[in-house]
Amino acid sequence: MTKLPEGWTRISSSLHYRDTRGMMDWLMNAFGFEERIAVPGENGEIVHGELELPGGILMISPADTGEPERFGLRRASPADVGGANTQTLQLYVDDADAHFERAKKAGATIVQEPFISDHGEDYWADKSYGCLDPEGHLWWIVERIRG
Q: What is the rounded CA–CA span in Å between residue 25 and residue 115?
């Protein structure tokens, strides 16, 4: 196994947004991410952003405005495709209830109130909730409570 580049995790994800700067700010305020970089493009739009939480990196890029731009593929925000999601992001936190209140206060759309999933003594139990960010990406926020 090769050594990872300094400051990087083995896997990261990228989300596409209409309002890259606004969504980076929202994710920092609502979920506690910290900004690593924000590469500006024309009109102040962020063409590449990186947000970080301990143990994870989230890249942010603009949704396409019509024609495929990279690799002949379209990049879309759920807001561009009727709310459809092609991925769900799961984020482990220390306190799901406190995170829930912070996200709700920031305007997250709550799709599942906090609840406990107990998979039995041989497995684990989690407290979790589900929410949508302002452009419709689905986030599953989880606190491990046993296991």
A: 28
CA 120/CA 123 separation, integer angstroms: 5
The 3 state secondary structure assigned to the chain is: CCCCCCCCCCCCEEEEECCHHHHHHHHHHHHCCEEEEEEECHHHCEEEEEEEECCEEEEEEECCCCCCCECCECCCCHHHCCCCCCCEEEEECCCHHHHHHHHHHCCCEEEEEEEEEECCCCCCEEEEEEEECCCCCEEEEEEEEEC
Residues of the chain with pLDDT under 50: none
> With contact defined as beta carbons under 8 Å apart, do 23 and 17 qualify?
yes
pTM value surpassing 0.85: yes
Which pLDDT score is estimated for 116?
A: 97
Tell me the CA distances in angstroms from 10 to 3, 15, 67, 70, one per residue in order.
10, 17, 31, 23
